[in-house]
Amino acid sequence: MGKALASLQIGTGCPWVRTLRLEGKFPEGSTVLTLRSVNVLRKYISLLDLPFSLLHAGDVLFVLTSKEVAQAKRAMSCHRSQLLWFRRLHVLFSRYLRINSLHAL
């Protein structure tokens, strides 16, 4: 698949990333991946979303191991001033810490 260039998909996508790709401004052999958004219920059921993600998998599905999740949580805890109560809840319940579905443009 070559080098992967990741982009955050917001709403209908990132038109500027799509434009850059169509204009051939990415290195040859690169793949642009966008993060698939999910509805709010799926967003906060954490690992319980895995069966839905497998059924509706995009081009790439990343599922972090327990060790990788622990590492991400340690990294978040290094920024205690930023880790407010609502962000702690997000880290605890969000599927995006554990599961990410990506779509290749």
UniProtKB/TrEMBL annotation:
GO CC annotation terms, alphabetical: endoplasmic reticulum
UniProt-listed Enzyme Commission number(s): 3.5.1.89
InterPro entries: GlcNAc_PI_deacetylase-related (IPR003737), LmbE-like_dom_sf (IPR024078)
SUPFAM superfamilies with a match to the protein in the record: LmbE-like
GO molecular function: N-acetylglucosaminylphosphatidylinositol deacetylase activity
Residues annotated as signal peptide: none
Top enzyme category: hydrolase
Family of the protein in this entry: Belongs to the PIGL family.
Protein name per its UniProtKB record: N-acetylglucosaminylphosphatidylinositol deacetylase
Biological source species: Cnephaeus nilssonii
